[in-house]
RNA sequence: GCGAUUGUAGCUCAGUUGGUUAGAGCGCCGGUUUGUGGUACCGGAGGUCGCGGGUUCAAACCCCGUCAAUCGCCCCA
């Protein structure tokens, strides 16, 4: 006889349960509430798209596309990909569904995303994000509004302590290109002093040298060219308007001139809310302005800005901050004699209809049911037993609660047998 | 893709230099005690020691491989 192997969960997936699941739900509920305050419209997006939706927007050559996407062929031999981010799919919908008519369009969504990566703290292959985008707004006010919403979200979640908003500008396309060239030149001069990884980066992704963790690199980063020296007048003005707006809105921020985005479609504002409490995965919420994205999907040039935040990471912070209140159980029924079961079932149903949260213990040894009920940590323990042909109740708990519960239960006790 | 650490009961973990039948606490099930109570006691079920191979008279323990978890690196849309 061959034994049946229990299938194992897929690496990097998680089964979320208990306090973690409550924290998760709390994050999503808070996001939904805040998003409505800012009048972001809810959208639901497909979990998979044609692969080109992501590969076009990310750039064909990057590691991200070649190694880190969950792609597969469907029965029509078409390459599809589980969404690794929200932005590209939303941008696609903006173009294919005629959403241009709503511009400037503020949308928000949340759900699972998939990236083929090595799992580690706060990082999974199926993970979940909150997402907010403003499409078709070129004004710095859009950046400000988006950041103000993110700031309020973190505050309402109660995790703003120890989290800082780091802000940078990448300038417009020309500024960015000039800066990049200067960086390459700077690092090439001292190439041998760079870490091995960064010598690689010099060819593939020089901006990334700026946030290297290697001390050898940090020394060279210190006096590397700064974007500020390459900003066009317009780019400088744009950034100033963003920072002024944040100050006016009371959103605290710090400048991080080394904060970059790897992809070419990012322009102007880049930002991350960073915590020191999550090990290597310090970014809690991040985003930026991606004015170049729509064109890579064949659309007209369209300014846009957005952010995303990992729900798991937020939930971890919320849990650590002790912000999730576990709903206490109102009533626990202990059926201490099986002859009381019918009345117990009636009581349970009526209590729930009356708005009490209620559970029942009616299995196992009758004499141990009350002890189990005690451990349920309910406001009111309702014991039901049988005595002289009658179901008898006992109530234990604060007087006001006992009174309210008995108002529901007593009529059922009195009505038995009628 | 790379490195470090860890895999023993449903959970948290012991398990000595390799040595008889692998243990505890919690949880679960049953019984006794108490009898309007969160008590105590007794008993029971539950283990391919992650998986596969090797060394050995003998492996949970040593060696190799593999899978997974955790943390970090790379990457981070």
Automatic annotation (TrEMBL):
Source organism superkingdom: Bacteria
Annotated source species: Croceibacterium selenioxidans
EC number(s) from the headed UniProt entry: 6.1.1.21
Annotated protein name in UniProt: Histidine--tRNA ligase
Gene: hisS
Catalytic activity: tRNA(His) + L-histidine + ATP = L-histidyl-tRNA(His) + AMP + diphosphate + H(+)
Phylogenetic lineage: Bacteria, Pseudomonadati, Pseudomonadota, Alphaproteobacteria, Sphingomonadales
Any GO MF annotation of the entry: histidine-tRNA ligase activity
SUPFAM superfamilies documented for this protein: Class II aaRS and biotin synthetases
Keywords noted in UniProt: Aminoacyl-tRNA synthetase, ATP-binding, Cytoplasm, Ligase, Nucleotide-binding, Protein biosynthesis
